Every structure is written in C-alpha cells, then in structure tokens.
Amino acid sequence: MEAFYQTHAYLVEHTNAPVRRTLMDEINWNDRLIGIKGTRGVGKTTFLLQYAKEYFGSDRSCLYVNMNNFYFQGASLVQFAGDFYRNGGKVLLIDQVFKQPGWSEELRQCYDLYPGLKIVFTGSSVMRLKSKEENPALVDIVKSYNLRGFSFREFLNLQTGNHFPVYTLDDILANHEHIVKEILPKVRPLNYFQDYLHHGFYPFFLEKRNFSENLLKTMNMMIEVDILLIKQIELKYLSKIKKLLYLLAVDGPSVPNVSQLAADIQTSRATVMNYIKYLADARLINMVYPKGESFPKKPSKIMMHNTNLMYSIYPVKVEEQDVLETFFLNTMYKDHKLYKGDKGTSFLVDGEQPFRICNKGCKFKNNPNVVYAMHHTEVGHDNQIPLWLFGFVY
Predict the structure, then answer these.
(1) What integer is the mean pLDDT of 175-189?
(2) Theoretical Cys-Cys bridge with 218: which of 41, 164, 209, 389, CB 3.0 to 4.6 Å?
(3) Architecture of the domain spanning 202-305
(4) Is the CATH number of domain 2-146 3.40.50.300?
C-alpha cells in the first residue's frame, strides 16, 4: 500500500493541468460512485490527479491507482479497496478500470461493502455504464460523466492566457454581438482557429512529439484496446474495423453505402453497422440521422468525430466545408442533439433550429428562420453568427 501512496504523491505533485476543465464543477462530488468516460487522449488521468490535488492535496485519505499495475493480477479490487478503507481511506481514484476483469461486479461489491468509501473511476467512451443489458451491476448506482477534448474556448484560453467563460447556445443566439465585443479587444480568435481545427482538440498537442503520429497511435489504441477488449471482439477482425474507418474517412461526410462497405471488408451488412456503432462509441466518428431516426437504421451521414482526426487519417483529401461542419457538430455534441438539415441547411439542432455552416464566399438568400454560422467572420449580426463563437459552448 505504501508504494501506491508514494506513486500517488509523486503524480499529484507533478501534475500540471494546463486548463481547468469545466467538468470539474459539473460533477456532484458527493456521489459515492462516479464514472468519468472519455476517448483516449482527452486527459482523463490528468483530470483525476487534478481533482486529487485540488480537493485533497497531501491528505492520505485520497489515493490514485491505475489498473495497469501488475499488483492487481494477484489481488482483487475489492480486497485493495477494503485495505485502503480500513486504514482511513475515503476516496479511491481508479484509472482505466476496464483493465480489471469483472470490474463492474467488483465496483458493486465495493459500493455495498464499504459505505464510507467514494470511488471515482475512469473508463473508455465505449463503456455503457447506464445500460441494463451491458452493465446490470452498476446501472442503478453509478453517476456517469463524459470528459471531452479541448473546446476552442479552452484552446484559446490556453494559448493566450485569457479566461473566457462558457456561453450557452441560447446566450450566443441572443447576444452574440455583445459577446464578441467582450472577446475581440483581448484576442483575435480567427488567428488561432485553424490551429485548433488541425491539432487543438487533444491535450497531447502540448507534448514535444509529432502530433499526427501521436494521434494515429491513439486512434489505433482506441480500436485495438477499447473496442476489441471492451466489446470482446476477436483479434482476427481488427483489420476489418481499421479498414472500415479508413474507408469512411476517405469517403468524407456522406451517406454510407453499407453493401459496398460490406463487400470491401468482406463481412455482412449487419456486422458493418455494428462496427460503425463501435467506432461512434469510441468517438472516432459521428452518425447524423434525420429527426426521429436513430441506430440501428442507416445514418444519413457519417462524419469524423472531430477535425483533428480528419487531418491525421487522410490529409490529402480534407475539404474545408467538411472541416467546418465537423467542427460545428463536434462542439455542439456535448449538450445538444444534431440531426440532418433540410434542403439548404446543414443541421437541425435539437430538432428545432436549422443551421447552415457557411464558408467564405458562401452565397445564400437570407432566411430569418435559419442561423448562419459564418467562417472567416469576426463579428456577426442578427442571424449571422461567427462560426468560431460556437466553440465557446463548453
């Protein structure tokens, strides 16, 4: 146990979160079992350590452990948590919990056996914590949250030293001209926007390594570990899932030809649709449906989950309009539902508000019922709003 405390102390002392994530204030830390999901590379480990540093400092009642530690090959999580609890432990932070076989049942036992212990754990976005079918042991006790990659607002704050707040979509729609007047005297957001689209979503762009190579490695890990391990798919199917992702990326945002994809990766249509769902759960792609439709129906459009992926997986064919629409979908994804737009629009947000994403030189007849998200625009007016400002919704 002492070795775990020493590791914890070292990690907490040396953790340096570049941006304080807004999720820190959205979580009800009084709950006894908290799951923080997120795709690889978005900073879940840093988030846990930052929580320990901010709330506990050097207090030994809080302990961080990683399920990669070989110790857990010989000891159960229930045993470890019990030892910690009996020695005065109150908050156990468990990283990569899904690496432990039977993790959900063990967490349930900890919850039932140690009523004074709080457990906060991280896991893959592929995990279905609130599903009765996939996670019956935890569905009624766990509180689940999602940690996302950097928003454009967080990226801008990090790069410029500013502390711009979050604005809700309603704030932006009603007051965008006033909001922009607060921002522009301090920074010119368009000077940073292309950098964000290329490499700003994943916090590891701060590391002194080649970003695209790092992201490709992360994408492979999402498929090889998160999808195969959690969904218990045999290794021999790995190449089919990777090829499917590549084909979807090359096609760009479009209606998937499921029959052709099935022929290309030599599997059934049903399997292709399941793989597409797994890729979406892993936050590698997004599926866009008409209002009122959802999986398992075929989506009307498949897009990459964020713009950084587009530049890494197939950089020779990155269309600017596709990038801008992907940015808008990704940034709105946290708190809003986006559906396929009607003719002349890009998306229907929350099933009610039509949006059109407009690149420079875009020609349109202004429809007062449509919101136009304008690229290469610093200041908007009425229903024409700078696209970059939607990056402030989280």
Answers:
(1) 98
(2) 41
(3) Orthogonal Bundle (1.10)
(4) yes
